[in-house]
Design a protein that fits this description.
The chain is built from eleven helices and eleven strands. The strands form two sheets. The protein has a seven-stranded mixed β-sheet, sandwiched between helices. A four-stranded mixed β-sheet has the order 5-7-9-10. The chain is an alpha/beta fold.
């Protein structure tokens, strides 16, 4: 188990579980957690020993989105700060709109990594899921929720437009009309209502959530890695490509994944021949 102040990383065979670890604030995202999440997911995306990644939260929340208290404090600091007297660490934070946008974009890489890494990703939603937390859940390939989980976009009610890829992801998952309902109505949904709307794939009793999700994670981890990786690439690309382009991509991916299988069988046969 790898542990930092705000993140816990566990390995169970070929399944890696990333736990957001700020339970006192429902795992709201602060700058250290945002940076750490990108670093951990980058590591797991390239780890050939990991075949499936599970994202969850400590305590009673999955992720409540951005840490509003930290965001408000940072805004107050910017208002009060005198640029001519900038000497401490707080004053060295991004100050222009462009700088702050670049900083947020780097943090939002967490969503891209979950969506694009060449292995299945699962959101194990154990509690409150709001704001950027809802976007992180959308970035995963599968979303499984506890019966006690609650969902809310929480962006527009706060005067914000949304981040972490939620508008792109939910438009493709739900369709344009439902994505607009999700954002503009800002409805609080329990797990059953969320499933009916299309936000989650399956719901489990709270006490059974981890066991059920890990069983599914291990099933995914047992799939041939190259086949799963190419299938994910195909499915993601299908959202943008024409049918002819998709046929081209599928044909190439089939042959590439076949090559991996053939090579694995060749090595297995060679190992058997050389065995005493």
């Amino acid at each position: 188990m790898d542990r930092s102040e705000f993140l816990v990383l566990d390995y169970d065979d070929r399944v890696a579980t990333v736990t957001l670890n700020r339970p006192d604030v429902l795992n709201a995202l602060n700058p250290p957690l945002m940076r750490g999440l990108v670093e951990v997911l980058s590591k797991l995306a390239d780890d050939e020993n990991v075949r499936c990644v599970v994202l969850t939260g400590a305590g009673k929340g999955f992720c409540a989105g951005g840490d509003v208290r930290a965001i408000n404090k940072a805004a107050e600091d910017r208002i009060k700060a005198d640029p001519a007297e900038s000497t401490d660490k707080a004053d060295r934070r991004p100050k222009t709109t462009e700088q702050r946008a670049r900083w947020l974009r780097r943090s939002a890489e967490a969503s891209r990594l979950l969506h694009e890494m060449p292995k299945p990703t699962i959101a194990m939603i154990n509690g409150a899921c709001a704001g950027a937390g809802l976007s992180l859940a959308a970035a995963c390939d599968f979303r499984y929720a506890a019966e006690s989980a609650v969902f809310r976009p929480s962006f527009l009610v706060s005067g914000l437009s949304g981040d972490y890829g939620g508008s792109w992801l939910w438009t493709r998952i739900l369709g344009p009309s439902k994505a607009r309902q999700l954002y503009f109505h800002d409805q609080r949904r329990d797990a059953r209502t969320a499933q009916e709307f299309g936000l989650v794939d399956e719901i489990f009793a709270d006490a059974q959530l981890r066991g059920e999700v890990m069983a599914r994670a291990h099933q995914l981890a047992d799939l041939p890695g190259a086949g799963a990786a190419y299938a994910k690439v195909n499915l993601n690309a299908a959202l943008e490509e024409s049918f002819a382009e998709s046929l081209d991509r599928e044909s190439l991916a089939m042959m590439l994944s076949r090559n991996v299988l053939v090579e694995a069988r060749r090595r297995s046969a060679a190992a058997l021949k050389s065995a005493p």
